[in-house]
Design brief:
Keywords: DNA-binding, Metal-binding, Nucleus, Repeat, Transcription, Transcription regulation, Zinc, Zinc-finger. Belongs to the krueppel C2H2-type zinc-finger protein family. May be involved in transcriptional regulation. This protein starts with a helix and ends with a helix. Strand 3 and strand 4 form a beta hairpin. Among the domains are: about 50 residues; about 110 residues, Double Stranded RNA Binding Domain (2-Layer Sandwich), CATH 3.30.160; about 35 residues, Classic Zinc Finger (Double Stranded RNA Binding Domain, 2-Layer Sandwich). It is built from 12 helices and 20 strands. The strands form 10 sheets. It has a two-stranded antiparallel ribbon. It has a two-stranded antiparallel sheet with strand order 3-4. A two-stranded antiparallel ribbon has the order 5-6. Helix 1 runs antiparallel to helix 2. Helix content is about 45%, strand content about 10%. It is globular, with a radius of gyration of 29 Å.
Length: about 325
C-alpha cells in the first residue's frame, strides 16, 4: 500500500521522466533525489527496529515485511518440494533454492577468501567462512563452556547435552542427535565407497574423508600439543589428544568400573563385555572387537606398505611401524 510520501515521489518521478534529457540540474530532480533518499532511509530504519515486520507466520511465528516473503516461507511447513535437481535428485521447496543448489554441480567457485584463498560457490558461504579468521567466538555453551562463531552452531551443539536422539537408522536402529549425522551414518549401509586413495587403495564413501586421509601420506603434522609437544595431521586429533592432559575421564564402564577419556575408547572396551570379538578376518580367522582394528590388520595381507621413511626409503604397513623405525 502506497503512503502519501511514496505516492508523491512516484508522481514527481513520472513528471520528470516526461522531459527528455532531464538531469540533476533541474531543481525538481534534486528534490526528487532528496525525497527518495529520506523515504528509503526511513524505511531501512523501520526495518532495523522491527516496526515494519507486521506479517507473521501462524505456524512458527516468524515475521516478514513482505507478503510474498511470508508466502514463500509458509511453503516450508507444507513439506512439499516440487523442484528437483536433474543432477543428483535433491528436491527443494523453492525454485530459487534449486538454482542456488545447481551451482554446486558446475564446479565454479567464484567467491574467494582474501585471508586464506579458500573458494566458495555462494557469497553466503564465504561470509560464514570469514568469521573463522576473526577468531571471535561470541556464542558460549552454558553447559560445557565451548564457544562458537555462529548461534546456529551453538544451538546444534546444545542438543548433545539434552541426550535426545530423535533420528534413528532404519537399517540398524542406531540413533543420532542430528539429521545430518544420521545421513552420514547411512552411507555405511550402502557399501558404496566411490572415493579411493591412489596411494594405498583405501576407499571412502565421502570425498572429505578421502582428503582428510590423504594428509596422512604427506607426513606433515602442523598441529602440536603445547603440553607435551606431540604433533598431529588434523586439528581434531590434537583436540582429542589434549583431553588426556585434563585428567577427566567421563565415560565409565558399568561392567568393570574402568573409565575413559574418549567415547571411542570406551566403546571399544565395552565390546569385551557384550560379546567379544565380532569382526573376523576372512584371510586368517583372527577376530577383533572393532571394525577399524580389523581393517588395520587386513593391511598385512594386502602387502601394501604406504608409509615410507623419508630418510632411507623403507616402507611400512602401518604408521606406527614407521614411527618406531624413525
Amino acid at each position: 500500500m502506497q503512503t502519501a510520501t511514496t505516492a508523491a515521489v512516484n508522481s514527481m518521478r513520472g513528471i520528470v521522466t516526461g522531459f527528455k534529457g532531464a538531469t540533476l540540474d533541474f531543481p525538481i530532480m534534486k528534490e526528487l533525489c532528496i525525497c527518495e533518499r529520506l523515504l528509503y532511509s526511513n524505511r531501512r530504519r523501520k526495518r532495523a527496529n522491527g516496526e515494519e515486520r507486521s506479517l507473521s507466520c501462524d505456524q512458527c511465528g516468524k515475521t516478514f515485511t513482505l507478503i510474498g516473503s511470508l508466502k514463500s516461507h509458509q511453503l516450508i511447513h507444507t513439506g512439499v518440494k516440487p523442484f528437483s535437481c536433474d543432477q543428483c535428485g535433491k528436491t527443494f521447496t523453492l525454485r530459487c533454492n534449486l538454482k542456488s543448489h545447481q551451482l554446486i554441480h558446475t564446479g565454479v567457485k567464484s567467491f574467494s577468501c582474501d585471508q586464506c584463498g579458500k573458494t566458495f560457490t555462494h557469497r553466503s558461504n564465504l561470509k560464514t567462512h570469514q568469521v573463522v579468521h576473526t577468531k571471535f567466538k561470541a556464542f558460549n555453551c552454558d553447559q560445557c563452556g565451548k564457544s562458537f562463531t555462529q548461534i546456529g552452531h551453538l544451538k546444534a551443539h546444545q542438543l548433545i547435552h539434552t541426550g535426545v536422539k530423535p533420528f534413528s537408522c532404519d537399517q540398524c536402529g542406531k540413533t543420532f542427535t542430528h539429521r545430518w549425522s544420521l545421513k552420514l551414518h547411512q552411507l555405511i549401509h550402502t557399501e558404496v565407497k566411490a572415493f579411493n586413495c591412489d596411494l594405498c587403495g583405501k576407499s571412502f564413501n565421502q570425498i572429505g574423508h578421502l582428503k582428510s586421509h590423504q594428509l596422512s601420506h604427506t607426513g606433515v603434522k602442523p598441529f602440536s600439543c603445547d603440553q607435551c609437544g606431540k604433533t598431529y595431521t588434523h586439528r581434531c586429533s590434537l583436540e582429542r589428544h589434549q583431553l588426556i592432559h585434563t585428567g577427566v575421564k567421563p565415560f565409565n564402564c558399568d561392567q568393570c568400573g574402568k573409565s575413559f577419556t574418549l567415547k571411542t575408547h570406551f566403546n571399544r572396551h565395552y565390546m569385551i563385555h557384550v560379546g567379544g570379538k565380532s569382526f573376523v578376518c576372512d584371510q586368517c580367522g583372527k577376530s577383533f572387537t572393532a571394525i577399524d582394528r580389523l581393517k588395520m590388520h587386513q593391511r598385512i595381507h594386502s602387502g601394501v606398505k604406504s608409509f615410507v621413511c623419508g630418510d632411507c626409503g623403507k616402507s611400512f604397513t602401518h604408521m606406527t611401524g614407521l614411527k618406531s623405525h624413525q
